[in-house]
Amino acid sequence: MLLSMQGIQSTRAENGQKAVDAIKAARRGDYDLIFMDIQMPVMNGLDATRTIRKLKNPWAAAIPIVAMTADAFSENITECLDAGMNGHIAKPINIKLVVKEIRRIKEERKQP
């Protein structure tokens, strides 16, 4: 709902496996970014990210992934980045920080 208030369309996956399945089935351009919760049932966000990074489709394997978690200690952030995530946002969510992170990733993707 917070994203839609900013004019951003989103799709929700109830767990990490469903997120992986959605990206496997997606075509280039279907998604621009993944906000990945770390603590999810079936498959956690770290394992889901690692699985996405190993996909054969180069677009899907490279999609930006940002962690959204209550764990904000430096070791937690490092763990997310080591799993292949592109960023980290701590909960509770501040929509201004989310929009700022979206812009940061968008600018990074423009650079050669």
Describe the structure.
Strands 1-2-3 form a three-stranded parallel sheet, with helices on both faces. With 112 residues, the protein is α/β, with parallel strands linked by helices. It is built from five helices and three strands, in the order αβααβαβα. The mean pLDDT is 90. α4 (74-82) links the parallel β2 and β3 (87-90). It has one domain: 3-Layer(aba) Sandwich (Rossmann fold), CATH 3.40.50. The chain is 44% helix and 12% strand. It has helices at 16-25, 45-53, 58-62, 74-82, 95-110, and strands spanning 34-37, 65-69, 87-90.
Brief summary of the model shown:
The protein has helices at residues 16-25, 45-53, 58-62, 74-82, 95-110; strands at residues 34-37, 65-69, 87-90. By secondary structure, it is an alpha/beta fold.
List keywords for this structure.
single chain; 112 residues; alpha/beta; Rossmann fold; three-stranded parallel beta sheet; 5 helices
The average pLDDT is: 90
Helical residues, percent:
40-55%
Q: CATH superfamily membership, which one? A: Response regulator
Secondary structure: number of strands: 3
Global shape: globular
- Strands of the widest sheet, in order across it, are 1-2-3
Note the topology:
Blueprint: H1 16-25, E1 34-37, H2 45-53, H3 58-62, E2 65-69, H4 74-82, E3 87-90, H5 95-110
Helix pairs in contact: 1-2
